[in-house]
Amino acid sequence: MSIYPLMRLHKFEYTIISFFISIIIFTSSLIWNLDITENCITFLQSMEMYEIDELMMSIVILIIGLVIDRIRCVKSRSKIMQIQQEQVATMQATMTTVQDIVNNAFNGLQYIKVKAEIGEELTPIDFETYDKIIFDTTDKINHIRNLTHIETTKVTSNHIGISINDKKNEDKEAEFSLLER
CA 98 to CA 94: how far, in whole Å? Predict the structure, then answer.
């Protein structure tokens, strides 16, 4: 027996609630010999002389409408909160990824800076490395900007980043990591 049909019951919550209320009313009428329906009809007939029965029915209908609207409002708010939490998580993942890309670029540039500060002569390879670091950093950030689908990956134990793993970027990251050595 599959549990899948039971998983879809959340779509019929008002039906489930009304079912349990009906069971409670039916069971209580059997146990205590109550005629709830007849009592309601008798009460409404006694109110007929004052024309209050129509007012009471209107009030009951109004209360039912208010309860349903209140339930829908609470659900709408929770959905908005969930969307906002997802947006914040996506923004945090994006910022973590951008910070990682920029820090990697700074580390590569710092290698060239330290080499120049200690008085070593910069070679054409150093200038190519400098240009490549800038190009790769710009390319990776532009790739993030143009994403249409986001896959996250765990960067550290506390941080989640955006996975940038198309073939083009894997090749560039391999080249970039070689340049950092």
Answer: 6
Model pTM score: 0.51
3-state secondary structure labels for all residues of the chain: CCCHHHHHHHHHHHHHHHHHHHHHHHHHHHHCCCCHHHHHHHHHHHHHHHCHHHHHHHHHHHHHHHHHHHHHHHHHHHHHHHHHHHHHHHHHHHHHHHHHHHHHHHHHHHHHHHHHHCCCCCCHHHHHHHHHHHHHHHHHHHHHHCCCCCCEEECCCCCEEECCCCHHHHHHHHHHHHHHC
pLDDT tens track for 17-33: 888 888 888 888 888 88
Do residues 161 and 151 touch, judged by C-beta distance below 8 A? no
pLDDT tens readout for residues 94-135? 888 888 899 999 999 998 999 899 988 889 998 999 999 999
Q: What is the mean pLDDT of the chain?
A: 79
